[in-house]
Amino acid sequence: MTDSIMSKAATMEIPINSNGDTGTLPEDDSLEQAAKLQWSLDEKVGSSRGTRDLQQVMVSGPNLNETSIVSGGYGGTAEGIIPTSSIKGSNMHHSSSNSSMMAEEATRGVAVEKLETVKKWGLNTYKCTKQMISERFGRGSRTVDLELEAQIEVLRDTKRKYENVLRLARALTNHFYNMVQTQHALGDTFADLSQKSPELRDEFGYNAETQKLLCKNGETLLGAINFFVSSINTLVNKTMEDTLMTIKMYENARLEFDAYRSDLEELSMGPRDAAAMARIDAAQQQYQVQKDKYERLRSDVIIKLKFLEENKVKVMHKQLLLFHNAISAYFAGNQQQLEQTLKQFNIKLRPPGADKPSWLEEQ
Q1: Phi, psi for residue 47 in degrees, rounded to 5
Q2: 3-state secondary structure of 76
Q3: Cα-based torsion angle of the residue sequence 64, 68, 72, 75 in order, rounded to the nearest 10 degrees
Q4: 223 with 195: CB under 8 angstroms?
Q5: What is the Cα–Cα distance from 214 to 229, expressed in whole angstroms?
Q6: Distance CA 117, CA 120 (A)
Q7: Sign of the C-alpha dihedral computed for residues 45, 48, 52 and 55 taken in this order
Q8: How many CB atoms within 10 Å of residue 171?
Q9: 123-129 CB contacts, 8 Å cutoff, 24+ apart
Q10: CA distance 256 to 120
């Protein structure tokens, strides 16, 4: 037992530095110190305090954070020593290499995906351009829906005419606004002269009142015309334009459908070997996809044209009635009928000087 304790204690006393080399004491000095330790242990073998100290020395082993892996035995050379720090560094380098390889693979995957997208886009553009040129020169066939195309042409013609009505209505609004402003200024001038010209006070007074009345009725008529212009603008530049955008998408889908249809027809007329059959199957799938897209957009256009026609009739019926009643009442001098017309169509006029909100409204 004493020999075992001596060997363990001697092993504990061998100094080991951070790089795994032995201490500065030679091997013989280490053995001599071990012998001295055995003699001191023999002297204190009966002492419980010495036993506790020895157990504490035996339990407290070397610091594992500073140990190294030694391949040789006791007294061996330091050639087989592998520092633990080099093992950690190797693992970190290996994980860093794996991370860089994974990042490189992800980048390569994104690049391949983008390349495939550009390739498909280029092929589709080539087919559509080829189909368009063939149609313009009368060499290729195109899918024609005579009834639908006639409705589309009517819509485009209607939009051009409504745009002209909108342009003229805006011009009328600008001219009439300038006339009302002139009448307002003229009425103020007449009223001022009525105060400064006693001999013509009544005459200037009559004309001042007339111009003020015309100015008031003119502002009421401007409210009706502005409402008319706003409604026509919404109909032309929003409702009709939305339908025309769907028509444009439908026409593009029709061109793509015909391009892939022509491509499938050309492949079907060629040889029937294994490679050709594979190309025909791929072309058949693309043709079916384009056909479904074309038919879906065609259905959307038909529905939107129907709803647009109903909405157009409803809006124009109301706006034309408003425009007629307001113009007739104004030029007939019927102020009551003019005001009643605005109430009928729920048009509220802004009071004079209400172009900008007050400071209280802005809070």
Answers
A1: -90, 125
A2: coil
A3: -80
A4: no
A5: 22
A6: 5
A7: positive
A8: 10
A9: 124/256, 127/256, 127/259, 127/260, 127/263, 128/255, 128/256, 128/259
A10: 13
Give the whole-angstrom CA distance, residue 183 versus residue 198.
23
Give the separation between CA 244 and CA 238, rounded to whole angstroms.
10
Number of helices (H) and strands (E), helices first, in the chain?
A: 10, 0
What's the half-sphere exposure (Cβ side, CA atoms, 13 Å) at 197?
13
Q: 254 or 126, which is more confident?
A: 254
What is the reported pLDDT for 298?
A: 95
CA 229 to chain centre: 34
Q: Are 215 and 180 contacting, i.e. CB atoms less than 8 angstroms apart? A: yes
Contact of 14 with 67, CB cutoff 8 Å: no
Phi-psi region at 315: left, alpha or beta (left = phi > 0; alpha = psi -120 to 50): alpha
Q: Say whether 16 sits in a helix, a strand or coil.
A: strand
Band of the pLDDT at 17, cuts 50, 70, 90? very low
Q: What is the pTM of this model?
A: 0.62
Give the largest CA-CA distance in the chain.
149
Q: Does pLDDT of 107 surpass 60?
A: yes
What six digits make up the tokens of 227? 């409402």
**2 pLDDT exceeds 80?**
no
H or E, element range at 203: helix 201-234
Digit-coded pLDDT (tens) for 305-357: 999 999 999 999 999 999 999 999 999 988 899 999 999 888 887 655 454 44
Angle between helices 241-268 and 84-136 (to 10 degrees): 90
Strand partners, 82: 69
Q: Cα(177)–Cα(3) distance, rounded to whole angstroms?
A: 121
Q: Which is nearest to 152 in space by CA: 247, 48, 279, 24?
A: 247
The strand ranges marked E within the chain are none
**What's the token pair of residue 334?**
């019927």
Closest CA to 291 of 258, 263, 257: 257
Distance CA 39, CA 37 (A): 5
The secondary structure of 20-34 as a DSSP string is: S-B-SS-HHHHHHHH
Tokens of 173: 């609004």
CB 235 within 8 A of CB 224: no
Q: What is the DSSP letter of 236?
A: I
